[in-house]
Amino acid sequence: MDTVLSRRWLRRVACGSLALVLCDLLVAAPAFAQARALSQVASLTGPAQRVQVDGNTLYIAADQTLRSVDIANPSAPRAAATFTFPQRIGAFVASGSLVYALIDFFGLRVLDISNPAHPTLRGGLELKGGVIAAALLDSKTILTANMVAGVQVLDVSDPEKPALLTSHFTDGYTQDVFASRPLAYVTDDPTGLYVLDLSKSGSPAQLSVTDLDVPPPPGGIGLVDFPQLRLALVDRPGAKPARVVAVLDRTSGLLLFYDISNPGAPASVSRFKVPPRSETLTAHGSRVYVATGAEGLHVVDVSDPRKPVSAGVFKTAQPARDVAVSEPFVFVATGAGGVVVLRYGQ
Known about the structure:
53% strand; disordered N terminus; globular; five-stranded mixed sheet; mainly beta
């Protein structure tokens, strides 16, 4: 995990360790839902830093190499395509037979794996700055979180000629992006949570910016894990609130939940503690899955977002770096330990 000097500490360092103590007092000890088992059903060897599921395909990225795996039977995954890029894969998204990879120093590269034996580069787009996250807005549009350029909107309707449509600059360092047409949710340090409207052509309309009440770094020295603020969207059709954003402060291990039913005024509903130095998170149904590094996989039930509860823990042999879900199966990237395939159930 990389470490950088956060600008948030400049306005919070005066609180120092007192703020940390108060934060710990305000976050209740984790409650537990009805116990469910997380059982291992398979594993995949080879380095794995990032994972993503699209249909019956699992994508695994590690350094410069992207692999695809057939998971039609998750208990017996089968290797499919392998492709090595000239530089490290900073982020990627997959749609059908196409993988949109954001490559250090090269920008966007479009990889066609319709023939797994011969993956083919279809197109590319040079992008300046460092892309640390990406999301599909729809089959023709990708959003990127770029540390220098903010949120970038890319047109990939022609895989041979992807194009940059527009950008939206956040006030600090863009950390993560999640898309649910026509809205995009963005985390930024030190500004907080942005909600953007992309329903009209041109630059995204900024609907709201919400300050995130995360504690200062330990000792107030301003050293944080970067990117610090990861996010996931919890959709709860028919429930109230129907849509919740989960924001993970990696350094402290604090999960913040916001009701975004009104995108113009997100409202804090609860917070939940997971292990500090956690890596990333994803949501599926009413559960949030957190790759917590050395503490493995943690599952949080948000059936009632006002009272999130622990819904399972699986201690991986190697640190959990990333997680992807196709329920009831969970795929955990563990770096040199490969991918652990879990089944979540009673």
